[in-house]
Design a protein that fits this description.
Helix content is 2%, strand content 48%. It is mostly beta strands. 33% of the residues are buried.
């Protein structure tokens, strides 16, 4: 079995099993503030379950990884979804895995378009935050509260994640 995964462009259809794409290519939008602002409504639902659960917002300051990426660890959040929206609009790498009997399956990789973010559904295996080329800041919406909302899995054998041909890690 090949252990190389080539990232592809992030689309709603391809990412649907894992979560939601956050961008302005969305049909549910309308003007507000006397027409001075366009609201792209309910791009995703923030999922938070368990005792003392609440939705929280944070800023994450991510450091880029060398490409191609050697994927050795994935994680998931059993008590809530987790959304990442870049503050500077640059692309980043998104790695997700289907669940196979409580373990991560073969990864899929996506490169976001400028200005796109993602919302990982609760319990979806995913790679860590991976900016491309330079440090990047993100608004993150996820679950706060009691309970263990992080499960990490170290892969038995790493995968190599490559960017698509013609893509640069110096985004």
């Amino acid at each position: 079995m090949s252990r190389v995964v080539t990232a592809r462009p992030l689309t709603r259809a391809a990412f649907a099993p894992y979560g939601d794409v956050l961008d302005t290519d969305w049909t549910n939008h309308y003007p507000i503030n006397a027409g001075r602002c366009e609201r792209f409504h309910e791009l995703a639902r923030i999922d938070a379950v368990g005792e003392d659960a609440r939705a929280i917002l944070s800023i994450f300051c991510g450091t880029p990884y060398d490409m191609p990426l050697t994927l050795t660890l994935v994680e998931r959040h059993p008590l809530g979804s987790q959304a990442f929206m870049p503050l500077d609009g640059r692309p980043f790498l998104v790695v997700v895995c289907p669940d196979e009997d409580g373990r991560p399956g073969r990864p899929e990789a996506f490169v976001t378009a400028p200005g796109q973010g993602v919302n990982y559904h609760r319990n979806v295996w995913h790679g860590v935050l991976t900016p491309l080329g330079q440090p990047q800041n993100f608004i993150v919406a996820d679950r706060g509260g009691s309970g263990n909302n992080l499960e990490e899995f170290i892969l038995d054998e790493p995968f190599t994640i490559e960017l698509p041909e013609g893509a640069s890690h110096e985004q």
